[in-house]
Write a structure and sequence with these properties.
The protein has 186 residues and is of the alpha/beta class. It has one domain: 3-Layer(aba) Sandwich (Rossmann fold). The protein is 52% helix and 17% strand. It is built from 8 helices and 7 strands. The strands form 2 sheets. Strands 2-5-1-6-7 form a 5-stranded parallel beta sheet, with helices on both faces. A two-stranded antiparallel sheet has the order 3-4. The chain is globular, with a radius of gyration of 17 Å. The chain starts with a strand and ends with a helix.
């Protein structure tokens, strides 16, 4: 059987990880692109590339200083694009390599759809009211709502044809919406 790649996308705090964890519980293979990026960030070659791009303050103790980097790149769109580009091709390669080894459905939690050239079978976009997203992400990340609002302002929602999951209720309601979409896939 051929692998069908399904992207689960949405803005910060929309519920991508909640949906990804639910899919894992149901036995599906799920790639979390943020986790893949954190793994890539440990690669000495990537650390050197980031240091060349952002300077020595971007690296502390041989690792990337994510807090410093976040503050720098979210205030400079060009730097953010160049920084993210260091990761995107590597993330894309991880998705495609995993797809080659996977029969059936492969889900990927993808925060930034417009930077990957993966051919998706389906795209599920999770849409959540802004204030709920900001509060969730602030609580999860230990940041202020204003910080999250600023990060969110740098993101753009996926605008191509996709299945939309409106996440404006409780967790069982979200799971029910995911189950309906799963029925359409199988």
């Amino acid at each position: 059987m051929k692998c069908k790649k399904v992207a689960v996308t949405g803005l910060i705090g929309s519920g991508k990880s909640v949906v990804g964890n639910y899919l894992r519980q149901k036995g599906f293979k799920v790639i979390d692109c943020d986790t893949v990026a954190r793994k890539i960030a440990q690669d000495p070659e990537v650390i050197s590339e980031v240091e060349r791009l952002l300077g020595s303050r971007a690296v502390a103790g041989g690792s990337l200083d994510r807090s410093y980097i976040r503050d720098v790149i979210f205030n400079d769109a060009d730097l953010r694009t160049r920084y993210n580009a260091l990761f995107h091709k590597r993330i894309e390669k991880e998705i495609l390599t995993t797809a080659e080894k996977t029969d059936g459905l492969l889900f990927a939690e993808v925060p930034l759809m417009d930077v990957l050239s993966v051919k998706w079978f389906k795209v599920w976009q999770i849409v959540t009211p802004d204030e709920a997203r900001f509060r969730r992400a602030a609580l999860r990340d230990g940041r202020s709502v204003e910080d999250i609002r600023g990060i969110s302002a740098t993101q753009k929602a996926y605008s191509d044809v996709c299945d939309v999951i409106v996440n404006d209720g409780d967790i069982p309601s979200l799971y029910s919406k995911v189950d309906r979409l799963l029925q359409d896939l199988q």
